[in-house]
Amino acid sequence: MSTTDTTATGPPAARVRRELAYAVLLCLAGAGLAAWAVTRSWSVEVTSRGALPPGERTRTGAELLPWVSALAYVGLAGGGAVLATRGRLRRLLGVLLAGVGLAVAVGGGVGLTEAGVSRQWPALVLAGGLALAAGGAVTGWRGGGWPAMGARYERRAGPAGPGDDRPAVDRGTRDAWDALDRGEDPTVS
Q1: 149-167 per-position pLDDT tens digit
Q2: 96-135, pLDDT tens digit by residue?
Q3: 96 contact partners, CB below 8 Å, separation of at least 6
Q4: Measured between alpha carbons, how far is 81 from 6 in angstroms, rounded to an integer?
Q5: Domain assignment of residue 40, yes or no
C-alpha cells in the first residue's frame, strides 16, 4: 500500500501562487540588492597635493556606471508590475525583466573588471542582476497561467444608466459625489 505525500506538492492553485510569489520576490530582491550595491563606494581616488595632505575622492557605482542604477529601478518597478499584469502581457514583462537583469549583471561584471574598484559591490550588483534575470525568466516562462489581481481592482464599465436603481455608493465614487452635489443621500437609491 503506497501513500502519496500531498504536502510536498500541494494543490495546483497553491503551487501556482507560490511560483508567482517566488518570481516576484526574486525580481524585487535582485533589483533591490543591485540598486543598493550600486550606491556604495566602489573606488577611492587619492591625489597628492604637494605639502598638503593627500585628497581623497570617493566614487560610487552609480557615478561610474549610471545606467546600472537606472536599470535596477526599472527592475524594481517591473517586479511590482508582475502582480498587476496577466497572461501574455505578464509573460512579455518577464522577458523584459530577464533582459534588464542581464544588463544589470553586465554592469556588475564591468565593475569587476575596472582597475581600482573594490570587488564586493560590483559582485553584489552582478548577483542582484542574475536574481532579477532569473525572476524575469521564470515569469516569462510560467507567468501566463498565474493568477491575476481580483476584479475589485479593475475599472467599471462606465456611469450608471437610467435603469440602474442601485445606491450611488454601490455604482462608484463619482456617482456618490454627484449624488451629494445634488443634495441626495448616496446610500439610498
Answers
A1: 765 555 555 555 555 666 6
A2: 999 999 999 999 999 888 888 888 999 999 999 999 999 9
A3: 78, 136
A4: 32
A5: yes
User: Do the domain assignments include residue 68?
Assistant: yes
Helix H or strand E segment including 122:
helix 120-142
Closest to 24 in 3D by CA, of 98, 96, 79 = 79
- Does residue 143 sit in helix, strand or coil? helix
- Please state the domain count of the chain: 1
52 lies in some domain: no
C-alpha cell at 134: 532569473
Task: Specify the DSSP class assigned to residue 155.
Answer: P
Cα–Cα nearest to 150, from 84, 78, 88:
84
Distance from C-alpha of 150 to C-alpha of 148, rounded to nearest angstrom: 6
Question: What is the residue range of 79's domain?
Answer: 14-44+58-146
> Which of 78-111 are b and which e, b meaning 16 or more Cβ less than 10 Å from the residue's Cβ?
bbebbeebbeeebbebbebbbbbbbbbbbbbebb
- Is residue 163, in this structure, part of any structural domain at all? no
